[in-house]
Amino acid sequence: MITELPASERPGSVGATVLTVEDLRVSYERRDDRLVAVDGLSFGVAPGEVLGLVGESGSGKSTAAMAILRLVRPPGRIERGRVTLGGVDLLTADPAALRRIRWREVALIPQGSMNSLNPVMRAGDQIADAITAHEGRGDGATVRQRVATLLDSVRLGADVAHRYPHELSGGMRQRVCIAMATALDPRLVIADEPTSALDVVTQRAVAETLLDATHRLRASMILIGHDLALQAQMVDRLAVMRRGRLVEIGPVRAVFHRPVHPYTRILLTAVPSIRDPDGKRRKAWVAGQGDDSARCFLGAACVQDRATAAEARPLMHDVGEGHLVACPIGEGDHASLWTAAHD
Amino acid sequence: MMPDQGSHLARRVLAVDLRLGAGLAVIVGLLIVGTAGPLVVGSAGLRLGGAPYAQPPTAAHLLGTDTTGRDVLTLMVHGTIPTLMIGLLAGGVGTVIGVVLGLVSGYVRGPVDTVIRGAADVAVTIPALAILVVLTALLQTQSIELMAVIIGLLAWPYSTRAIRAQTLSLRERGFVTIAVLSGRNSLETMFLEILPNLLPYVVASFVGAVSGAIVAAVGLQLLGLGPITTPTMGLTLQYAFQYGAVARGMWWWWGPPTLFLILLFGGLFLISSALDRYLNPRLRGVGAS
Fold first, then answer.
1. Arithmetic mean of pLDDT, A311-318
2. pLDDT at res. B4
3. Spatial separation of the C-alpha atoms in residues B51 and B41, rounded to whole Å
4. Quick one: average pLDDT of A258-286?
5. Rounded to whole angstroms, how far apart are CA atoms A182 and A178?
6. Cα nearest neighbour of A128 on chain B
7. Residue pair B277/B283 in contact by the 8 Å Cβ criterion
8. Are residues A314 and A175 part of one domain?
């Protein structure tokens, strides 16, 4: 069962989508060479779904998010691809359409959102600005009332509106960012490591607020991060990126319980497990990494060395339940190989 | 926070406040002399031959007279505001140009940045005084405003570089991304979102530009290239040197304008060093928490 269709158009995968990303390729031009940061990325996000996007630093997660919002700036360049949101291709939309869609349809909680508020503006004014920039200067009292409601929705008091960012704690600042992102009832929220740099307790509280807010709006969310434990609790589907490519995507339980791609496995074994307190399994993995990571884990028959793997364009193979895995080899029924190898 | 750390911080903040206060006091003092002084001493002393020539200080002429019989004290109080004016105007022009170019260069980047940054880097290496000498000689400026504007037009490279560097760092911050996403255009983003964050740097670079402009103006006047219709410290110094005040021991002639300039530069230095301290990220980081 081999296919090159994007995940969204596949049977057994998500049906109708809010966002469809097809064959997205983004590169950074340097003096005389080019770094491909996102390479042939395709996925879809269903209505109300939370999609986790994980991968190591530099794997292209944030670049992909920026490209979806068409915020990639030189020396970065979107080479090709389609990003469809509400029937409009964001990558070819004219400036007016883009302006209508951004923030109203798709909002962003930027990376390091603790430091994403303007230090010289009061929190309430910043939220109000996001509203009035799109809806025009309405009645001041109405806008103030909406700001208070939004702050309440992220469990912050109305007095926070009058405070400057440096008067708020990290968690509070992140809540303000969530309030800003949900101010215009977007269909999709892209959250780029929204809870990094917080302690575990605050992280959890902020994550719950974020989920609450998006669920209430019935909005979808792309949650970028590398905290797998947090992702496991928050997302419906998990996508794993490596070196700009999607290596595995599927329902979060399937990916956690039956990881297929060697990279996903390494990533997951890096998480300390309560069943493996001494980290024996993890150590074994790290020790054997040289051999194991060079080979596809779809089965014994699937042995391909690293050099060939890097050349080949990986196709996505379905291993069941919309669980897709990239493999450097372009042929062979890997779903059955997987089953055979794990019987 | 440990108590000794706290008191250490308090001492540093106090030291900054003292500097800023002292610097401001000096400048305000000079401003008062410049505005109230002419009312007190009148302008009779400005007339050529209005008093005995080249007299050391006496009760009638507290700072003596020059070789044309003008009262030095009157020259001083009347020259204060024009001297400060040159500095403020030139510093203002230079800072405005520098801020605009720096913001555009840092925010827009690409070829625009290459051109502006390249021009600033080159301009920094050319001695402004050399260009000023040529320009003022060509234009034969007889108004201090024109001279100030010419000086200001050449004072942009330093503030351009400082503002550009800060803009480069700020444009990567989340609030800029959010501003762009929520539909602000580039001008709004630069001037409404980024510029307010740069105000301390703008003020610091303005203070620096004012000192630089006064140095340039005095330098030009010492070379005899300034306007001679308005009394300024530079003009008084020019005459003093031209007529051999130092060799003739007429300390009351060259001394007061020199002292005035020392006070002015001292005051500006105190202000800019206090601002420097305030802008020090380490100190600011502790102070903000």
1. 60
2. 52
3. 14
4. 69
5. 6
6. B182
7. yes
8. no
Q: Say if the Cβ atoms of B178 and A166 lie within 8 Å.
A: no
Residues in chain A: 343
Residue B107's pLDDT is 92
Window A:224-283, CB contacts with B under 8 Å = none
Phi-psi region of B71 (alpha: psi -120 to 50; beta: other; left: phi over 0): beta
CB-based contact A132:A143 (threshold 8 Å): yes
Q: Is the pLDDT of residue A303 over 60?
A: no
B197 touches chain A (CB under 8 A): yes
Angstrom distances, CA of residue B145 to CA of A131, B151, B223: 46, 10, 18
Report whether the peptide linkage leading into residue A75 is cis, meaning its omega lies within 30 degrees of zero.
yes
Position B42 scores a pLDDT of 79
- The CA-atom distances, in angstroms, between A292 and each of A264, A332, B239, B242, B251 are 12, 20, 87, 88, 89
Q: Are residues A271 and A198 in the same domain?
A: no
Residues with Cβ within 8 Å of B185's Cβ and at least 6 positions away in sequence, in order, are none
The tokens describing A159, both together, are 């007095």
Six token digits for residue B288 = 């903000």
Count other Cβ atoms within 10 Å, centred on residue A200.
Answer: 11
Contacts of A180 in chain B (CB under 8 A): 178
Domain boundary among A201, A232, A257: A257
- Name which of A150-154, A274-278, B43-47 the model is least confident about: A274-278
Do A111 and A216 have their domain in common?
Answer: yes
> In CATH, what number is assigned to the domain containing residue A66?
3.40.50.300
Map tokens 């997205």 to a residue: A24
The answer to whether residues A264 and A166 belong to one domain is: no
Length of chain B: 289
Estimate the crossing angle of helix B144-153 against helix B72-108, to 10 degrees. 30
Domain that holds residue B112: 3-288
Does the beta carbon of A5 lie under 8 angstroms from any beta carbon of chain B? no
Query: B26: domain CATH number?
Result: 1.10.3720.10
Q: Which residues constitute the domain of residue A232?
A: 2-257
pLDDT category at B7 given cuts 50, 70, 90 is low
Taking CA atoms, A146 is separated from A100, A127, A128, B169, B173, in Å, by: 20, 9, 8, 32, 26
B256-284 as b/e: b if 16+ CB within 10 A: bbbebbeebeebbbbbbbbbebbeeeeee
Lowest-confidence region among A223-237, A281-295, B139-153, B246-260: A281-295
Question: Considering its fold, how many domains does chain A have in total?
Answer: 2
Q: Residue B179: its chain A contacts at CB < 8 A?
A: 118, 129
Is residue A332 domain-shared with residue A187, that is, in the same domain?
no
SS3 content of chain A, % helix, strand, coil (to 5): 40, 25, 40
Residue A205: other Cβ atoms inside 10 A: 16
Q: Do A111 and B197 touch (CB under 8 A)?
A: no
- Single residue among A215, A231, A257 that ends a domain in this structure: A257
